[in-house]
Amino acid sequence: MKQGKILIVSGPSGVGKGTVLKELMKRHPNMRFSVSATTRSPRPGEIDGVHYRFLDKASFEDMIARDALLEYASYADNYYGTPAEPVQQALEQGIHVILEIEVQGALQVMSRRKDAISIFIAPPSYGELRRRLYGRGDTAPEVAEKRLKIAIEECSHAQEYSYTVVNDNVDEAVQEMEAILLAESCRSEFRPIHLEEEL
């Protein structure tokens, strides 16, 4: 069985990451999302091990001490992070693991896992991203403006990723993601050639 690959996927709010990844996973059933760990309390309807792995603060800090996280961060007095062991288990089963994470977490994983494939999903333009954020209808103007400012900062890190996919058309973006996966699977280190001279 071939080893699975880690796909680090980042991009600003409103760029359509979820839509692209949902379609990609529909076409490739050997993919799954990594389940993050957090110390925040579950929200109504959230299931432990499905939406998040809910941990107490001591357990999370023990994982930090044991270097058992691919990345972690603290927001609003809660920890969030990616446990390394479940990711490695999935990879060994030939499953591609998607880490849909923000830029700072992505950079942490890139530094720890040189074998990870990093993809930044970008909007076709600032104007289109603005249209998408405002077009949702459920985002207050001040929130949308804040997200646009964050998006500019996030997009400034795109060059630190191995690949950039511009989501102007979902089907084309998915095709580009598939092309990246195909190219990565053809890398020489993953395809040793064994030829023996005939006697």
Indicate the overall shape.
globular
Order of strands in the sheet with the most strands?
Answer: 2-7-1-8-9
> What does the average pLDDT come to?
93
Helix content: 40-55%
Largest sheet: 5 strands, parallel
Structural class: alpha/beta
Domain module count = 1
Radius of gyration from CA coordinates: 19 Å
DSSP summary, beta strand count? 9
Oligomer state of the chains in this structure: single chain
**What is the CATH T-level topology?**
Rossmann fold
Contiguous uncertain segments of 5+ residues = none
* Series of H and E elements: EHEEEHEEHEHEHHEH
Put simply, the count of helices is 7
CATH superfamily descriptor:
P-loop containing nucleotide triphosphate hydrolases
Can you give a write-up of this model?
By secondary structure, the chain is an alpha/beta fold. It has one domain: Rossmann fold, CATH 3.40.50.300. It has helices at residues 17-27, 57-65, 84-92, 103-112, 126-135, 141-155, 170-185; strands spanning 6-10, 31-33, 37-38, 53-54, 69-75, 78-83, 96-100, 117-122, 163-166. The strands form two sheets. It has a five-stranded parallel beta sheet with strand order 2-7-1-8-9, sandwiched between helices. β5 (69-75) and β6 (78-83) form a beta hairpin. α1 crosses α7 and α5 (126-135) packs antiparallel against α6 (141-155). The protein is globular and about 70 Å long.
